[in-house]
Design brief:
Length: 387
């Protein structure tokens, strides 16, 4: 039987017919095509590339765009789709939300008409994959200190630097590389096959194993001057992209928590110790109540955030609050579920440990939990505490 959802406060009554249809379609896709293969992908440390055409067919790439072949769905429908994908695995949601928020979004928002024509249809149809190179080996939370540089050379730019921890790195046909030009952060499109540009997979990860994570190397990499994203200057560019990504993560984390909760409830009802199902013990029930309560609160945060985003009123700080709360909530739920499953909980035959391990990455990426805290602290007090 497929996943029936976790909806204690009747949010389904507030979703439109179309939002529910999209959610249920992605839910079915996850049940039928992600869950049967994800354990093997995670164990092998490979992103299941065979899913890319199907993800594109479902309209999940460029999903909120109305142009260039995008499905033009609303912010809540998009959030629900991300929720369901991450219920399958964080790696699937990451593939999709990086392609959307960190690749299609900057090309659409900051790109030239030629860049849009060249890349958006292919990225939306799943014929091309993109990645987003901001983080460097020595600069994660503080990307403004990046060392990657671009220099002018006639009709070209020459890029030098290394980007680390890049989702979709080794799959990507095009990388959005953020580098300093005359000391100012700018975005550049670097195409696979360009001399001086190479990628390598990061091996031995114990988290996000079904996600492609790698490094980008730029060594005297010469790109045409037309590959500069003309529409933005400074850290604002990548930060605007990260807001899109964090929005998807806030919803995705709810999906991971829902998967863990469902698994824990089913297990607790069946597992017998001391001649009773463990679900009959108060300490186990308390954990289930804690999970359901936190999931419900996070769902309400997402729903309202989606409404605000849809009308262009979702503030970056509100997205930070949702990312911070929901990822920490999901990690807590995954740990509680893993505990309820006892020793069985440490095997990949169940989902909770996989989600728990994945969520350790989600806690760190696109702005760590601390960084979201400091963003909110600054908003509350007016005092910047990053440095
Ligand atoms: C699976 C995965 C996928 C990723 N995908 C991408 C991608 O596609 N593109 C990309 O550009 N990056 C990507 N990242 C990188 C990610 O965004 C960074 O890991 C993240 O920004 C944190 O940087 P860092 O790992 O260098 O940690 P650091 O910045 O070194 O932080 C280490 C610790 O110090 C804390 N810290 C840092 N500064 C402060 C401060 N001022 N106050 C308090 N605490 C502080 C942090 O919160 C953290 O706990 C990915 C990471 C992972 C794990």
């Amino acid at each position: 039987m497929g996943f029936s959802g976790v909806d204690y406060f009747g949010l389904d009554d507030l979703f439109t017919h179309e939002q529910k249809l999209i959610r249920n379609t992605v839910r079915q896709f996850v049940d039928e095509e992600v869950l049967p293969i994800i354990k093997e992908s995670f164990e092998a440390g490979h992103f299941p590339t065979q899913l890319i055409p199907k993800i594109a067919e479902l309209g999940l790439l460029g999903a909120t765009l109305k142009e260039y072949g995008g499905a033009g769905i609303d912010a809540i429908a998009y959030g629900l789709a991300m929720q369901e994908l991450e219920r399958g695995d964080s790696g699937i949601r990451s593939f999709c939300s990086v392609q959307n928020g960190l690749v299609i979004y900057p090309i659409y928002t900051f790109g030239s008409p030629e860049q849009k024509e060249r890349w958006l249809p292919k990225l939306i149809q799943g014929e091309a994959v993109g990645c987003f190179g901001l983080t460097e080996p020595e600069h994660g939370s503080d990307p403004g200190a990046m060392e990657t540089v671009a220099e002018r050379d006639g009709n070209y730019f020459i890029l030098n630097g290394t980007k680390a921890w890049i989702t979709n790195a080794t799959l990507a046909h095009v990388a959005i590389v953020w580098a300093k030009l005359d000391g100012v952060i700018r975005g550049f499109l670097v195409e696979r096959g360009t001399k001086g540009f190479s990628t390598a997979k990061i091996e031995h990860k114990m988290s996000a194993r079904a996600s492609d994570t790698g490094e980008l190397y730029l060594h005297d990499c010469r790109i045409p001057k037309e590959n500069l994203l003309p529409g933005v200057e400074g850290l604002k560019g990548p930060l605007m992209c990260l807001n899109q990504g964090r929005y998807a993560i806030a919803w995705g984390a709810v999906g991971a928590a829902m998967a863990c909760y469902e698994e824990a409830v089913e297990y607790a009802k069946q597992r017998v110790q001391f001649d009773k199902p463990i679900a009959s013990f108060q300490l186990v029930q308390e954990k289930l109540v804690e999970m359901l309560t936190e999931i419900t609160k996070a769902q309400l945060v997402c729903f309202r955030l989606g409404q605000l985003k849809e009308v262009g009123k979702g503030k970056p700080v509100q997205i930070s609050l949702a990312k911070r709360n929901n990822v920490a909530m999901a990690l807590h739920c995954a740990r509680l579920a893993r505990d309820i499953l006892g020793a069985n909980g440490i095997t990949l035959d169940y989902q909770s440990i996989r989600h728990m391990l994945n969520l350790e990455s989600v806690y760190t990426l696109e702005g760590t939990d601390h960084i979201q805290t400091l963003i909110l602290g600054q908003d509350i007090t007016g005092i910047q505490a990053f440095k």
